[in-house]
Structures are given as structure tokens and as C-alpha cells.
């Protein structure tokens, strides 16, 4: 079970606003807040997301092929999270829409370039 995912940042306070806005839409808040590390989520809840300045003091870089997926409650929330991301300095990596029969997602990057998506999986109606 994943407890949380940590992403590197070069400007913790600036990028915290991006994640504060996404977390608010998803009904969670900061659960840890330090000078070099902030985590959002709910203790005992679903996996959280954290930002940190790299421990080695080097610049944070984006991992090629790395993505954090945020589970939304419905398609409307997927759309809203994408909108929030773009209005808080994020960039679009794929507009909200269906991907296959039961997967609806939107893809975006945070201001540091980390790739995220918001998604919902819906089980097809039984015949």
C-alpha cells in the first residue's frame, strides 16, 4: 500500500499554492508542513502527495515516465482539477476526456514540470 508520493521542487512555497488548490478540491489539507517538505492528504486515508527540496541540495528534476495519479470522485471533479491546475501555473498534458471504456482522465504538469493526472474509473453497466 502506498502511503504517499514525494515530488521534488525548486520553489517549495510557490508550488505549495498549486497543491493547496488541488488538495482543497479533493477535500484534504496539509498533513505535514516543514521548511523543506510539505505533504497533503489525510492520515489513515488514501495515499498523499508531498513536495520536498532535494536532500542532496541539487536542483530538483522531473523523472521521465514518472506520474502521480489523483483519484477523483467523478468526471466533474476530473474537469475541475484540470482547470485548477492550469489556473495555478500548471500546463496541460491532455484535456479531460475518456481513455477507453471505463477510464476518464485529464493530464497536467505542476509548475516544476512534474506530471500528474486526475482520473476516475467507472465500471461499465451490466447488460
UniProtKB/TrEMBL annotation:
State the superkingdom: Bacteria
* Matching PANTHER family: GLYOXALASE FAMILY PROTEIN (AFU_ORTHOLOGUE AFUA_5G14830)
What PROSITE patterns has UniProt attached to this entry? VOC
Write down what this protein is called. Answer: Glyoxalase
* Record domain VOC: where: 1-121
Classification via Pfam families: Glyoxalase (PF00903)
Amino acid at each position: 500500500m502506498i502511503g504517499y508520493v514525494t515530488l521534488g521542487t525548486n520553489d517549495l512555497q510557490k508550488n505549495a499554492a498549486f497543491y493547496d488548490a488541488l488538495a482543497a478540491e479533493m477535500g484534504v489539507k496539509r498533513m505535514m508542513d516543514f521548511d523543506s517538505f510539505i505533504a497533503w492528504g489525510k492520515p489513515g486515508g488514501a495515499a498523499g502527495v508531498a513536495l520536498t527540496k532535494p536532500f542532496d541540495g541539487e536542483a530538483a528534476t522531473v523523472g521521465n515516465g514518472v506520474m502521480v495519479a489523483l483519484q477523483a470522485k467523478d468526471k466533474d471533479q476530473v474537469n475541475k482539477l484540470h482547470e485548477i491546475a492550469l489556473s495555478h501555473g500548471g500546463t496541460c498534458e491532455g484535456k479531460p476526456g475518456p481513455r477507453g471504456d471505463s477510464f476518464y482522465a485529464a493530464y497536467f504538469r505542476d509548475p516544476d514540470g512534474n506530471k500528474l493526472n486526475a482520473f476516475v474509473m467507472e465500471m461499465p453497466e451490466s447488460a
